[in-house]
Design goal:
33% of the residues lie in helices and 25% in strands. By secondary structure, the protein is α+β, with helices and mostly antiparallel strands. A hairpin with an 8-residue loop joins strand 6 (192-194) and strand 7.
Length: 589
């Protein structure tokens, strides 16, 4: 063996890279014996390609042929043009004599070739690895399942869907946000549609977190990664047969300018063993109730066998870079340390037992099936709603966590109340009693904060906290704001607001206050929430008068009002000693 290797080394010692490269190619072009494996030759050719300088038309052809083979595509040559072919599209690359690239075009099945600037620049800069990755994405985009006949039908149906979505995206809509891009993404009927080009899949951006900053000097927004949630629109196989459009189903608009869709039974369609898919980028942890709502919206079953269930916070922690910073207190509870500006440290505890109830179990969804463009607006609203809840919970275990052993200034416990609300329990400053902030998220654009047991007589507090939470989508930022307000109140007991409250309490003609006891038997009085001006974002800027209301006035606001809080308030954890057997707040007797 040593003699053979030595002879080979002497024979090819003076050979150039080009000659060696051509030798490997000739070996691969010989008739193959199926009983032999040619992987070593393939690997050798690929390694040679990587180090070989592309300086001629032949070497560029060879490099493109290898990339086509890696992606499972065909390869054909006609003079100075290379064709990389697949079932539903092909790539046309026009070469120059020096090995450069003059033009790159992408042609879908039945369509004319369209220039692709992104692919052209990758080849001109000889970024072959990036070009191969881009081509892999293109192959995946056109990777429609089924035989050739069904592939063509599904491809046609997907094109019809894309054209209808483009029509919807061009309809007039009254803006709801001052930032045009954020407004379209978070509030648009179908989000921000990135029209599917021949070298880019049809994509919808439908949720983005805010990046606003506080106007006060002592509190600024925590720096967090701004994530744009998107979904690629494609097709996938299905165990059941579904009707899919073969023409536009958007014939007209209603008087309000909203799209009116035809049912598939009244439009050209085909029954195929497939359905459309919203492929989520990245995947989203979803609660079971939202998964059921997806099924109700589309009438397309989502197989339970494909879903892995776990408490929602666990799913969020797994997909967050923060989970390595969490400190396990026991077998179930996890504490996260969150730093805020000014050197303030918060500790957030999520009790495992509280989140393991059936209503709080969830699963990670990477795709949502549907069969009609009319399904998309409803699906996006559900996705936005879940994203809003996830964003708030994730803020309690931000990736900017301190190391083990950090001293925390404030400790908070986060517990679920309903499927769309949770509570944050904390100690009041300068007292041994507890206060609770109830955070209700009835939809993607509305957050309702209700404060209990804090001793604040300012009726604007709840509305103010709700505005802060909506604006920054951060529990720590909101709790820092609240705690600053509580510290100001406790440090200035003889302020005009406090005196006005004292006079109101001593006025026997005023309505009776609702009183509850805290863990130490202290008396707490709650006030009715009132509106706060849009520009009132100062921590102590509210000058609203303090008024008290009777229990009969407060409880309907908590339990039954569809505007303020459509979810019933339930006794969980720390609230148990404040509740009677019928679930109502108890009075001090």
């Amino acid at each position: 063996m040593k003699s053979i290797i030595s002879d080979l080394h002497l024979k090819f010692a003076e050979k150039t890279w080009n000659e060696t490269f051509q030798l490997v190619r000739r070996c691969m072009e010989k008739p193959k014996d199926e009983s032999k494996h040619y992987e070593p030759l393939v690997r050798s050719l690929e390694r040679l390609q990587e180090v070989f300088n592309v300086s001629s038309m032949n070497t560029m052809r060879s490099r493109l042929e290898m990339i086509a083979s890696q992606q499972g595509m065909g390869f054909h040559i006609t003079e100075a043009t290379c064709y990389l072919t697949a079932d539903l599209f092909y790539l046309e690359v026009v070469l120059l004599p020096c090995g450069g690239v003059e033009e790159v075009k992408v042609a879908p099945h039945g369509g004319s070739p369209v220039p692709s600037e992104s692919l052209l620049q990758l080849l001109r800069s000889k970024e072959f690895a990036e070009f191969s990755m881009k081509l892999a994405g293109l192959v995946n985009q056109y990777n429609i399942p089924g035989d050739n006949e069904n592939k063509l039908k599904l491809f046609t149906s997907l094109q019809c869907l894309g054209k209808d979505l483009q029509k919807i995206s061009q309809l007039h809509r009254v803006p709801e946000d001052s930032d045009p891009e954020m407004d379209v993404i978070n509030n648009g009927r179908i989000g921000l549609l990135i029209a599917g080009k021949e070298d880019c899949p049809l994509t919808i951006q439908f949720y983005i977190t805010p990046t606003d900053e506080m106007k006060t000097s002592d509190l600024k927004m925590i720096d967090t990664e701004r994530v744009i949630q998107a979904a690629q629109v494609t097709v996938g196989v299905s165990d059941a047969t579904h009707k899919l459009q073969m023409a536009s189903v958007l014939p007209q608009l209603d008087p309000q300018g909203s799209p009116v869709f035809l049912p598939l039974s009244e439009a050209p369609h085909e029954s195929l063993p497939a359905c459309f898919l919203l492929k989520l980028q990245p995947a989203i942890p979803m609660m079971s109730s939202f998964v059921n709502k997806f099924k109700q919206t589309t009438d397309v079953a989502i197989p339970d066998v494909d879903l892995q269930w776990a408490p929602l916070p666990q799913l969020l922690m797994r997909r967050s870079s923060a989970n390595s910073h969490g400190e396990t207190l026991d077998e179930e509870d996890t504490a996260f340390t969150v730093p805020l500006p000014g050197g303030v440290m918060h500790s957030y505890i999520l009790p495992g037992a509280a989140w393991e109830v059936p209503a709080q179990r969830g699963t990670v969804m990477d795709s949502i099936p549907f069969t009609h463009p009319a399904h998309i607006p409803g699906l996006l609203e559900l996705l936005r709603h879940q994203c809003a809840i996830n964003t708030l919970l994730r803020s309690c275990f931000t990736s900017q966590c301190a190391g083990t052993g950090s001293v925390c200034d404030l400790h908070f416990e986060v517990r679920p109340e309903t499927e769309t609300s949770f509570s944050v329990t904390f100690h009041r400053p300068d007292t041994d009693s507890l206060a609770v902030l109830l955070v209700n998220v009835p939809n993607a654009r509305e957050i309702i904060c209700t404060l209990f047991g804090a001793g604040i007589k300012d009726p604007c507090t709840d509305e103010y906290l709700s505005n802060v939470m909506r604006r920054f989508m951060s529990v720590p930022v909101t709790l820092r704001t609240l705690y600053c307000k509580l510290e100001e109140i406790t440090s200035a007991p003889h302020s005009p607001s406090h005196l006005a409250t004292t006079e109101a309490e001593n006025d026997h003609s005023a309505p009776s206050s609702t009183a509850v006891t805290d863990t130490n038997g202290a008396l707490t009085t709650y006030s009715h929430s009132a509106a706060v001006p849009e520009d009132s974002f100062s921590v102590a800027g509210s000058a609203c008068c303090a008024i008290s209301v009777a229990k009969s006035e407060l409880l309907p606001e908590i339990n039954s009002s569809p505007v303020v809080n459509p979810y019933p308030f339930t006794a969980v954890g720390v609230f148990s000693h404040w509740m009677t057997n019928d679930g109502q707040l108890s009075e001090l007797i």
